[in-house]
Design a protein that fits this description.
Number of domains: 2
Order of helices and strands: EEEHHHEEEEEEHHEHHHEEEHEHEHEEHH
CATH topology of the largest domain: Rossmann fold
Number of strands: 17
Shape: globular
Distance between the termini: 35 Å
Strand content: 25-35%
Length: about 400
């Protein structure tokens, strides 16, 4: 799966000009309310929406261009992503690629003002070259699996100014690098798990993947138990290890063709319904289903997973996220982004996995990795934990 090494965001709400470099398999964002954590995650959702529909619709669902562009800012909204097509463990065997998109507005209508893909092949030095480069709907593309700088460039013209070029060209076999990026972005998954949604009784029928809110949890349980029983058994084993007394979980069809989740507690003969299960139990179960998905998403964003979970489970959950993100022998890792307010979750991290968000004097968001903050590496080398350093005020304004 592709791996993002760096992302630069300009003029997107509070994110007027921020860059996250040297990203890790797991990246956790910490900061006071209102510093842009949710906005950072929405960048991934916005780009996915632009690809799945178009720029206009993605902006309208967020309040249109002038509401999305950073206040008092000029120029386009832009995103620049440096990534590799291989996962974290194999990334150095893959050529880095940069994708850039700028979105502007003219006569009240948003449009893609610039979009390009570039890389540098076969040379250690020299400028990267663009194998896709479109400005205001017109530009060039180089076809083939490994487009070279000297290859023939084909002129292209976009029919709709608010459609991404990678959406159109990514459907064609002669543009495999573009198609790879399209599939990557289409697979990004944002989890805003809501326990009450998971307690709903959905229509009967299997579902391969958990939805963003978890409202199809019972359907995914049905799918895993039927199609991937070994994986489902492993999930149950891990849940039982973390939730004392929990024995089994299964989906049962009702007489009207819907599904209910039933939880069996060891000491009791009869199972009980999801509506009687704690938020923490549902969340831990749902996150493990997400992490053990037989075909996981290439990128995963999770907002505040600690809510409703016992503090002792947070260190374990952080380790589960890290193991999933790094992958292993025969397993491809999924890059993970998490927002958190919990020192117990933060305690499980390495300093290079933690990002501190804040707001500068102009009101815009700023972000810095914890290991770049003065004295943090020294404290960590002496055995300090990030959660303790956070409480003791070593993250500056990010301690809110």
């Amino acid at each position: 799966m592709p791996f993002i090494e760096q992302i630069t965001i300009k003029n997107y709400k509070l994110l007027q000009n921020v860059t996250l470099s040297d990203l890790q398999p797991i990246n956790v964002v910490l900061g006071p309310n209102g510093t842009g954590k949710s906005t950072l995650f929405d960048v991934f959702g916005f780009l996915a929406d632009c690809l799945q529909s178009n720029v206009k619709k993605a902006l309208e669902s967020r309040g249109r261009f002038l509401e999305v562009r950073s206040r008092n800012a000029d120029g386009p909204i832009s995103f620049t992503i440096k990534y590799r097509e291989a996962d974290y463990l194999n990334r150095l065997n893959s050529t880095p690629i940069t994708y850039h998109i700028s979105i502007d507005e003219k006569n009240g209508k948003p449009y893609v003002s610039h979009e390009y893909l570039q890389w540098r092949r076969g040379k250690q030095y020299g400028s990267p070259y663009r194998f896709l480069d479109i400005k205001n709907g017109e530009g060039i593309v180089i076809t083939g699996d490994s487009p070279e700088e000297g290859d023939e460039r084909q002129a292209i013209r976009m029919d709709s100014p608010d459609i991404l070029a990678i959406k159109s060209l990514g459907q064609l076999a002669e543009h495999p690098r573009v198609a790879s990026l399209r599939r990557f972005i289409e697979g990004w998954f944002l989890s805003y798990f809501i326990p009450d949604k998971a307690r709903q009784i959905p229509e009967s029928g299997a579902a391969e993947h958990l939805s963003g809110t978890g409202d199809n949890l019972a359907n995914v349980v049905q799918y895993l138990s039927e199609e991937h029983p070994n994986t489902f058994e492993e999930i149950l084993t891990r849940v039982a290890d973390r939730i004392p007394g929990l024995e089994t979980i299964k989906s049962e069809r009702t007489v009207d063709g819907r599904l209910v989740l039933q939880f069996k507690d060891g000491p009791f003969k009869d199972p009980f319904l999801a509506r009687n299960v704690s938020d923490g139990t549902l969340k831990m179960f749902a996150y493990l289903i997400l992490l053990y998905d037989p075909t996981p998403p290439p990128l995963l964003c999770v907002e505040e997973p600690e809510n409703g979970l016992h503090p002792k489970l947070l260190n374990i959950l952080a380790e589960e996220f890290r193991a999933h993100a790094r992958g292993g022998i025969g397993e491809k890792g999924t890059q993970v982004f998490v927002s958190s307010h919990s020192p117990y979750f933060i305690d499980a991290l390495k300093s290079e996995e933690l990002w501190i968000m804040n707001r500068n004097d102009k009101g815009y968001a700023s972000i810095i990795r914890a290991d770049k903050i003065k004295r943090i590496p020294e404290f960590m080398s002496e055995g300090a934990s990030l959660g303790s350093l956070w409480y003791e005020g070593y993250f500056g304004r990010g301690n809110g």
